[in-house]
Amino acid sequence: MSHDILSLLQSRAPDFSKGQRRLAQYITESYDKAAFLTANALGKAVGVSESTVVRFAMELGYDGYPEMQKAMQEMVVNRLTSVQRIEVAHDRIGDQDVVSTVLQADIERLRRTGETLDREEFQGAVNAILKARRIYILGVRSAAPLAGFLGYYLNCMFQNVRIITASGTGEMFEQIVGVGPEDAVIAFSFPRYSAATAKGARYCRSTGAAVIGVTDSKLSPLGQNCDRVLLAKSDMVSLVDSLVAPLSVTNALIVALAAQREKELSKTFSSLERIWAEYHVYEKQVEAP
How much is the pTM? Predict the structure, then answer.
């Protein structure tokens, strides 16, 4: 089964009936709209019956229309430009309440992430980080905040943490050139996938380092270049990618590591609390009269 439905449609085109050709043409030319239509709505848009759409999906090798629709939606996330994503988001939300729509979508992503995250992969990632000599954290562009957030807390637990958020491939390689077999690399990447992150992960893995990817698919450019993959759903089709589920997975990683570094953390934060108090790092909340 091809993971790119457009390539699949092109290769099967000679065998299509008249109705199937109309479906294939509509999907090819308007996949950003087709991906979010029901089988009935897609059939009406093309001028064929709903049953024809369902049979078309099965003849392409999918279990049914929902699986084909999922393939189309994954393609949309990977291929759309920022302008196209804004247009699709507008069409999907329409007159609905934006806050409720976005929050409900994020809740669903959290639920799906909790169901699909492999606990053995997660524990393997924790173990690799705990025994690493150095820890490199890669996250560029919209994934940079995830790298910074994780790095902030890991710097409280470990002595040799390097946060790399350079989006240029050349600059990234300059910062990871010393990575080796005793190191762990944690990389973040979500659609639209950063080429620099995928290339950096590939290089780190070639040196023997333990590479852990936090991404949305094992087949993503990052996922294919990792030893451990922590899956987190981030499939909002809009200018803004939802990082709620990836951040929650990052939180879980921090909590799991903290449980294993309790003594080190207690010592670090005891010192920090004294420093924060002496230098008035934090403002105290004013009590109500």
Answer: 0.72
